[in-house]
Each structure stands twice: as C-alpha cells, then as structure tokens.
What we know:
By secondary structure, the protein is of the alpha/beta class. The protein folds into 3 domains: 3-243, 4-Layer Sandwich (Glutamine Phosphoribosylpyrophosphate, subunit 1, domain 1), CATH 3.60.20; 256-453, Glucose-6-phosphate isomerase like protein, domain 1 (Rossmann fold, 3-Layer(aba) Sandwich); 457-596, Rossmann fold (3-Layer(aba) Sandwich), CATH 3.40.50. Helices cover 36% and strands 23% of the residues. The strands form 4 sheets. Strands 3-2-4-1-10-9-11-15 form an 8-stranded antiparallel sheet, covered by helices on one side. Strands 5-6-7-8-12-13-14 form a 7-stranded antiparallel sheet. A 5-stranded parallel sheet has the order 17-16-18-19-20, with helices on both faces. Strand 2 (31-37) and strand 3 (43-49) form a beta hairpin. The relative contact order is 0.09. The chain binds 6-O-phosphono-alpha-D-glucopyranose.
Amino acid sequence: MCGIVGYIGSKPAYPILVKGLKRLEYRGYDSAGVALIDDNQQLNVYKTKGKVSELENFVIQKNISGNIGIAHTRWATHGEPCSENAHPHFSSSESLALIHNGIIENYAVLKEKLQAKGYVFKSSTDTEVLVQLIEYIKITNNLDLLTAVQLALQEVIGAYAIAVIEKNHPEQIIAARKSSPLVVGIGDGELFLASDATPIVEYTDKVVYLNDEEIAVLSNGTELKVVNLHNAEITPDVKTVVMNLGQLEKGGYSHFMLKEIFEQPDCIHDCMRGRVNVEGTNVALSAVIDHKEVMLRAKRFIIVACGTSWHAALIGKQLIENFCRIPVEVEYASEFRYRNPVINNEDVVIAISQSGETADTLAAVELAKSKGAFIYGICNAIGSSIPRATNTGSYIHVGPEIGVASTKAFTGQVTVLTMLALTLAKEKGTINQEDFLEVVGELNSIPEKMKEVLLLNDKIAELSKIFTYAHNFIYLGRGYSYPVALEGALKLKEISYIHAEGYPAAEMKHGPIALVDAEMPVVVIATHNALYEKVLSNIQEIKARKGKVIAVVNKGDTIISKIADICIELPSTIECLDPLITTVPLQMLAYHIAVCKGMDVDQPRNLAKSVTVE
Ligand code: G6P
C-alpha cells in the first residue's frame, strides 16, 4: 500500500526514482509524485492523479534535475485520488517535502492544533498534517530536521513509513518507519530507499531493513546513520538480498499475472528444493524439525491470514488435521486481532502472508505472541515484517509476485503447508509410512502435472469469451476443493469485476440455488475423490435449474463430463494435493475473462497488493 522510493548520490535521481516507482506500482496506483532538489537548491514537487506513466507525461518540459529525490505511488486512504492529495506534500513554507505510507490515526487532532496556529491545508490527507507538524516543531524550537522529525513522530499515533527532504539540505534524506516497511539500499557512493527491495536490487544487493521507530539519515550518498526516536544510535544490520532481475519483468508475457501463473511449476519446484528429496521419498521442513518440541506439544494450531492467504489456510487446516490429528482453527487476522481471542502458550499460531507486511496479520502475530503462543510464519517476501516478528517459519520461495491477484504465492503456501503437515505427522507418528510415501511421491510430481494443466491455456482463453456477458458466477467445491472454489471466485471478482461467490457445494441448497437460472455460470470442482458422487448430485441440481455448469474434472471422466456444459480436464492426483492442480485453471479462467473484458489485470481498480493499513 503506497510505494516509497528515495535516492541520494551522484547520478540524476529522477530516472532511478521513476523506475523504482514502476517496480512498486503493485502497491498502489491512484496517483504518483516526485520531489527533487536541483543544483540551485530549488525543491521541485511534481504530482498527478493516475499511474506512474501519467507522472512521466506530466514532467515533460519540467526541471527534473537533481541528485537527491523522493517519490511515491499512492493507494488512497484519506482523501480521494487527485493531484492535491498525491504525495509528496509540501510544508507551508515549501521548504520540506514528505512522502508517507500508512495512516496517522490522530491526524484530526493534530490538524486542529496546527489550524489553531494558523496553518492552512491544501489537501485532505493525514500526510500533509505530518509534514506541517514537523515544520511547526522545527521552526518554533529552531531545531534541525532530524530532531523535529523525532519529536513529531513521538506525537503520532498510527503507522508510517516516511521520507522527508529539506530544500536547504540537499545532502540528506530522513526516513522513518513504524508498522510500514522501509528498506535502505547501500550502493557505491549512493544510497537508496524503498518500500521493498525491488527498486534497489539492480543497483546494489546490500540492504538494511528498518525496524519500528527507527529513523535513517541518508547523507551524501555515502553515510547511513540509524537512530531511534530518542536519538540513540543503532548499528544498521546490513543484509544481502538475492533477487533475479528477470523476476521483476514480464519476460514476454502480456501481464505479470499470466507470467506468474505459468511460473508455478518452477515455483513449486523451488519451494520444495532442499525440503523434498529428489527421489520423492522424504520431506523435512527444517523449521518444524528445529522446533519440534513446541510443535509436538501444541494442543491446537491457529492459522491467521487475509485474502488469498486465508484460502490457503483453509487447505492447511485440512492437511494438518488430517495428517497430524491436531485441531486447527482458521481466522481472518483482522477479526482475530480485535476479539480478545483465547490463546495461550500451548498454541502454535501460523501466520500466512505473501507480502509479509499485511497490517492485520502482523497485528495478529503480535497479539498472539504477547499471549505466549509460538508463532510460525509462512511468507514469500524475504526479510519482510512478519517473518521478522515470528519465532520461526518457512519461506515459500516463489520469487517476487507482482500481479495484484495472487497466484503462485497461493500454490506456494499450500505446498509449504503440505510439507509442514507431513514433517510434523512423521515426527508425531500420526501418518503411516505407506501414506507418507504416497503423498510425498505425488507432491514431487505436482510440477509436471501443473505443466500439463498449463497446456489448457488456449482452450480456457477460448471458453472465457463465452462468459464475458455474465454479471454473476458461482463456484462450488467440497472438502479440499471448497477453499479452491473460494479462491476461484476471489480471482474472478478481483480482476474482472464480475460478482462471484464460492460455496461448499452442498450449501448451495440453503440459499444460493435461488440464483441459478439459464444465465448463471456455475464452476464446479468435480475431480475424482471421496465426494465425487455427492458433487455429481449437486451438479444435477444445478442442471435441473438450467444453470451453465463448467466442471473441473479429471481426464477420463465419463459421468460428470456428460452432464456438464463445459469440462476442463485435469491430470489426477491424490485428494489432499488436488488444490495445487485445480486452482490453476481457475486462475486462467479469471485471467482470460478479465482480458476479454479489457480490464487492467495486473492493477485492478481499488486493490493493492500489500495492505499495510488495517
Ligand atoms: C491483498 C492482496 C491479496 C492478498 C491479501 C493478503 O488483498 O490483493 O492478493 O491475498 O492482500 O496479502 P498477504 O500479503 O498477507 O498474503
């Protein structure tokens, strides 16, 4: 949510900043802006509604010189998306410019206080309040910028990642974080700042992830000082990031989403590397082994997550209960954190998050930790906030996910949950060797089976054309396929704006069936498993009401394929691994329907990939 980039060094800042903003556009894209200090110590701010490309058009013919600058791409929280509300925001004297990601919760009180002192506001944002507050503190107490920022942030309640520059001090950027991510990149005579490492990795692999309430002072492109709000100096922990630049490009695909769907066989392979042996006879997730006492002692698992990660959690519940015989609860992190849940030190809480930054999931982790639970993270973004807040965890290792609609992260999360359940079940002795070998062997063959599924892309693209008329879709599944139905529906609504709902197939009779008529497409996951006959009956009920059934079946199906209107035929696997196969055609279906409807697949309206506000 909101992307921040900063640069100070000897190169022209603007091209680096704009390129960085494009890398971060997945975080928000309703307006964009840049602030630069030129050689004559002019502080120039340019900002406009719309995407980064619109900012590029806006600055043609403008003075974009300068070796220091900050830039922002916005996902609106306070105030509509328009150029006045876009960042950077000037202070009243226009000597400070500030960008911000997060929410200043007490902005209204602070604003009133400043208005009473005569401050006038041009925007309806909480961010402008912060920059005015910093200026007010700075001028009234005759302080330097760092001290003013420290004092201002002590008055702030809420979440922030900020960067601020001062007209008369082109030698420094001051940046700070609390509950919103911020990374400093250390190059050769240049320093970078960004919401995540993606804008930085093409210049340097040396980064410092700031912690909450830390302030970074980036001076002259050469000196990085980190202090806390009370000016105690902190030694920066310099880490090396490994990221393949190709992962950040579309690589010939028309959208990141399609690229990421197609990457899944390789991603699952990478996710299993070093965890499942090449023969496919053993699986060992080191975090489970290393913490087996606490994991074996657990009376209960609670999985907290949001969005697509929450759907993966529902599959994880079935896997862990099935193999490990431990009760598992799945919670929306946003609900869990506010309802005084019963948690104690016999609970293991698993937090699932692609970005590792989702504010509600992070807060749920902190709450569970404070009550003594052991916290296990399943994340994708290396070094992000959730993995740093957990006791242990396993990365899914699927590479950066750029498309706003999550695809490869979901299958990566399900893969890690499968490996977790198997590793723990083996330790607990709740799975027999034969079943263990069958699941591990099948897991090992999933990447090849996914490749077969991807061959259906053209067919699914063709059939998608039929359904662009639809205003509603129903997705049905049972058992392990129920969360897949939820995920399929979520994908469709996120990117095509068609209303779609997922249900456990048998629940259809309790309401949703009233919606079924000849216009209603119903996607049914009907692969061959223990509930096949039951799903068959559910399909007959839909057909009796003339619904259009798109059935996801296994190759060679001779029963459902005869009564469904359209069949998508998939390779078979065992029931517990079915989601890794059946999700893929649903991702493709959503993608192609959205493309047929001319939608902005990678940056759907109103959404952001990394939701760092609650
Ligand atoms: C946003 C994204 C979703 C994602 C959810 C949770 O809504 O658009 O794709 O599933 O956040 O994100 P996380 O990074 O915690 O998995």
